[in-house]
């Protein structure tokens, strides 16, 4: 069978038109490319670059630790636990009651002490009444003695007047007065002796009262000590979070409760060669190793004595930092104590995808590098080691990158 390859005139016309159109389009594209030409690349000059200067950061290893802690051991001698007011994980404030002791074993002893005090008070009351009676008798005898002394004085005065008289009647009266004087002096001596006996009784009574009162004082002291053991509140000494271990109720070697302060604290170690470079209140930068997060902190304490550890061959000192935010206990950290040692002007930094970048000069070209830095007062302070002293950075990196597109 023979095939017919001859095209009709109409089809030939259509093919010619398509070819012409394709030629026109291709020519237009070529012309446009030629007209556009290569864009002139932004010129980078050495004079516009910035040489990094400064000093290398002092770096130390650190760890987040407990800043303060209260450990509570159960003391069964104070009684049984009652009114437990906190639970594991609960936050408490200083002064909050954690639990109480109840000791009923001492109640009988306290009652016995109370009976002894009451008995002694009764004895003191009775003896004091007896003392009052004796003093009353002394007062009466003293009155009698005063009266006898008065009479005796009168008699002695009369005797003195009659002693020089020669009259018989006066002599007889004189003799009678002498007899009266002897009688009064006898009574005076007798009453004085009675008073002395009664005063001796008063002294004995006062000694007895003092003995009862001193005994009561000692008993009351013992009783008050026991009263404190009947019921005693255990309170929180610090603010923090309570950790409860029920094993501690029956095992005195295990802490029943621990209150852990929420105040963050970091402990780090510095060598004997660098300790002189640290000062209290110095600002530092902390890097959390596990997350790469940077947190500012302040040095609060530097140990005066070196670290003592078995087998240690180098001298080191612990120092302590208060971070601006909490860090989980036990997290490892890198401590940078002069993190502002290397600064980068703001004009040499740009942000890309919320990250900080610089353009590092590399011959006649550059290298785009992401860095870790903190911005303070229009200056960036380098936190990582992505670039170092002596490297040169290109100014206005955003403009340079835009011009190279």
Summary of the model, kept short:
The chain is an alpha+beta fold and 405 residues long.
Overview of the structural elements:
It is a single chain. The chain is an alpha+beta fold and 405 residues long. The chain folds into four domains: 46-55 and 341-403, conserved putative lor/sdh protein from methanococcus maripaludis s2 fold (Beta Barrel); 59-65 and 264-337, Elongation Factor Tu (Ef-tu), domain 3; 68-96 and 236-258, no CATH class; 106-228. Helix content is 38%, strand content 27%. It contains four helices and 21 strands. The chain has helices spanning 9-36, 107-162, 168-230, 397-403; strands spanning 49-51, 59-66, 69-72, 80-82, 91-92, 97-102, 231-235, 240-244, 257-260, 264-271, 283-288, 294-302, 316-323, 332-336, 343-345, 350-352, 355-362, 365-371, 373-376, 379-382, 392-394. A six-stranded antiparallel β-barrel has the order 2-10-13-12-11-14. Strand 16 (350-352) and strand 17 form a beta hairpin. The chain starts with 8 loop residues before the first helix and ends with a helix. Residues 1-5 and 33-42 have low confidence and may be disordered.
């Amino acid at each position: 069978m023979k095939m017919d390859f001859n095209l009709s005139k109409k089809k030939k016309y259509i093919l010619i038109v398509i070819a012409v159109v394709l030629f026109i389009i291709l020519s237009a594209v070529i012309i446009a490319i030629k007209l556009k030409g290569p864009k002139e690349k932004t010129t980078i000059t050495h004079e516009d670059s910035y040489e990094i200067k400064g000093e290398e950061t002092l770096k130390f290893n650190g760890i987040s630790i407990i800043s303060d802690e209260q450990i509570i051991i159960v003391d069964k001698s104070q009684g049984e636990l009652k009114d437990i007011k906190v639970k594991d994980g609960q936050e408490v404030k200083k002064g909050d009651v954690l639990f109480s002791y109840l000791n009923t074993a001492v109640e009988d002893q306290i009652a016995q002490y109370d009976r002894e005090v009451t008995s002694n008070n009764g004895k003191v009351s009775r003896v004091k009444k007896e003392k009052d009676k004796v003093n009353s008798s002394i007062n009466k005898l003293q009155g009698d003695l005063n009266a006898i002394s008065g009479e005796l004085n009168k008699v002695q005065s009369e005797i003195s007047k009659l002693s020089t008289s020669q009259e018989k009647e006066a002599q007889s009266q004189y003799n009678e007065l002498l007899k009266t004087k002897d009688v009064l002096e006898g009574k005076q001596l007798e009453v004085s002796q009675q008073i002395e006996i009664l005063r001796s009784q008063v002294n004995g009574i006062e000694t007895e009262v003092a003995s009862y009162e001193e005994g009561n004082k000692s008993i009351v002291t013992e009783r008050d000590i026991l009263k404190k053991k009947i019921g005693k509140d255990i309170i929180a000494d610090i603010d923090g979070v309570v950790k409860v271990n029920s094993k501690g109720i029956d095992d005195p070697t295990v802490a029943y409760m621990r209150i852990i302060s929420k105040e963050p604290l970091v402990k780090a170690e510095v060598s004997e060669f660098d300790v002189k470079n640290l000062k209290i209140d110095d600002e530092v930068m902390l890097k959390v190793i596990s997350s790469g997060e940077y947190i500012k902190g302040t040095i609060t304490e530097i140990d005066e004595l070196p670290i003592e550890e078995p087998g240690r061959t180098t001298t080191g000192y612990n120092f302590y930092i208060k971070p601006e935010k909490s860090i989980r206990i036990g997290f490892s950290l890198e401590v940078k104590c002069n993190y502002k040692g290397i600064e980068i002007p703001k004009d040499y930094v740009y942000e890309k995808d919320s990250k900080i970048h610089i353009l590092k000069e590399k011959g006649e070209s550059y290298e785009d590098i992401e860095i870790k830095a903190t911005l303070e007062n229009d200056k960036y302070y380098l936190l990582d080691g992505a670039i170092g002293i002596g490297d040169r950075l290109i100014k206005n990196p955003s403009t340079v990158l835009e011009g190279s597109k």
